Amino acid sequence: MGPTPYVFITDIDLAKEAYNRNELSGRPKTAFSNLVSNDNYTDVLFADFSPKWLALRRVAHLAVRKYSIVDRLPQLIANIVDQTVSLMLNREDINTGFQTFDYIYLLFLNIMAASVFGKIYDIEDQEFRKLNYIFHDFFKENAQRLTFHEFMPVLQYVDREVVRRRKQYIADTRELVQSKYISHYNDFNETDIRDLCDALILAKREAIRDSKESAVYLNDDNITMVIWDLFIGGVDTTHNTFKWLLLLLAKHPDCQQRLRNEIEVNIGDRLPVQEDRHRCHYTMAFIAETMRYRLVVPLAMYHKAVVDTRIVNHNIPKGTGIFVHHYHILNDVKQWESPDQFKPERFLDSDGKYVTIRPPAYIAFGLGRRSCLGEKLAQVSLFLVLVRLLQNTSAYNIDVESEANLEANYQIIDSLQPYDYKLTK
User: Fold this and answer.
1) How far apart are CA 182 and CA 197, in angstroms?
2) Cα separations (Å) of 246 from 24, 104, 206, 242?
3) Which of the residues 43, 79, 130, 333 has an alpha carbon 20 to 30 A from that of 33?
4) How does 191-230 read in b/e, with b if 16+ C-beta sit within 10 Å?
5) Sequence-distant (≥ 6) Cβ neighbours of residue 175 within 8 angstroms
6) Are 243 and 101 in contact (CB under 8 A)?
7) pLDDT at 412 over 60
């Protein structure tokens, strides 16, 4: 693609072998990656394989795992869902179809913003509107052109205005994130970790105290970009996944009713917590099957060979790009029975319990050295949001305005067009 050769892997065993090897854990330099990972600062998602990347990855992964189990998270998510549903019901006529995209985006942006730096937005907030435009509307409007820039950089000279705007938008959001991160130093308390900014400040100070080799890489510029990755990547993937959850609830009313029954029996009206994931087996299976059936990142992020190497009998020259075709593996007839059918039951055992040991080909969060950084937080968030939403709409059924509109969207693999929902008695 463009000047760079790429290898595509569609076999799960080869994929695991490739993505678990350091020599295939690099990232190709592209127009976009140069804006977020360069000589001045380094992120985790787009940076090439290096000791600096390893240090930032470890610190970020540890911070996310710690924060995803804090006691305050379920209450935080419940409050945000309650506020969003209340806003939606007050603003919309539920007897006719209405758009849900802005509400879903607001919901997950607020969860991530509150989790990362303790901020909650109103739907009319100018900062929210700007973020929504930059990371949703702008990239959607220019998606094809920006993709071509990645693989054929010469086209940037044709689309100079789009390139200029993207560069400015990334600089603006980086400055926004850094200002919120730096402000946390003013009232930081090691005994009260409020959000991921606090968790990363603590990790930085512990590394310095313990004289760890990684300490030299944990400067404020690099940590800002780690937060940027978590914030931007987390909002995009979780809100798009949840749009599929809603569509599948509407498409399969029998599944929706089974979810509601399970939640009523095991949770009722009380606040859902992390431990409920061990009680609501069908709910967990429904989420897992949604991510298998319609993964929102069919190819995920590509890797790069950092040295000349081999995969089985194939030579992979240094600099070659490596794609694992996640969507193919998640729908491979060799790995899944009737993969074209939506069947949450495939993730339940004979006793109806959620299968906690993943099937070998379940790679919804990626695999290897560069698997999804925010996996734990995403899993918790999707569960708590789905349960709380169904609790808040217990008097209704989630449906769509147009069956034809639903069927048109249902055929899309990795994105959804706007469509109208309605709540029916």
Assistant:
1) 9
2) 37, 10, 42, 6
3) 130
4) eebbbbbbbbbbbbeebeeeebebbebbeeebbbbbbbbb
5) none
6) yes
7) no
Residues 6 or more apart in contact with residue 340 via CB below 8 angstroms? 331
User: What are the distances in angstroms from CA 155 to CA 31, 147, 161, 301?
Assistant: 11, 10, 12, 22
Token pair in block for residue 87: 């806003």
To the nearest 10 degrees (0 to 180), the angle between helices 51-67 and 375-392 is: 30
Residue with tokens 């929504």: 132
Write out pLDDT tens, residues 353-381. 999 888 999 999 999 989 998 899 999 99
Report helix, strand or coil for 375: helix
CB-CB contact of 40 with 362 (8 Å)? no
Residues 294, 356: contact at Cβ < 8 Å? no
**CA 134 to centroid of chain Cα atoms:** 17
Please report the sign of the dihedral spanned by the C-alpha atoms of residue 143, residue 147, residue 230, residue 116.
negative
CA distance 386 to 267: 13
Domain ranges of the chain: 6-424
Q: Does an H or E element contain 86, and which?
A: helix 72-91
Give the other-Cβ count within 10 Å of 303's Cβ.
26
Query: For the purposes of burial, counting CB atoms within 10 Å of the CB of 252, is it exposed (0-12), middle (13-18) or buried (19 or more)?
Result: middle
Q: In the CATH hierarchy, which fold is given to the domain comprising 6-424?
A: Cytochrome p450 (1.10.630)
> Is the CA virtual torsion 135, 140, 142, 148 positive or negative?
positive
Per-residue confidence (pLDDT) for residue 419, from 0 to 100? 65
How far is residue 220's CA from residue 26's CA, in Å, rounded to a whole number?
23
Residue 404's CB: how many other CB atoms inside 10 A?
Answer: 9
pLDDT over 80 at 405, yes or no: no
Strands 397-400, 420-424: pairing is antiparallel
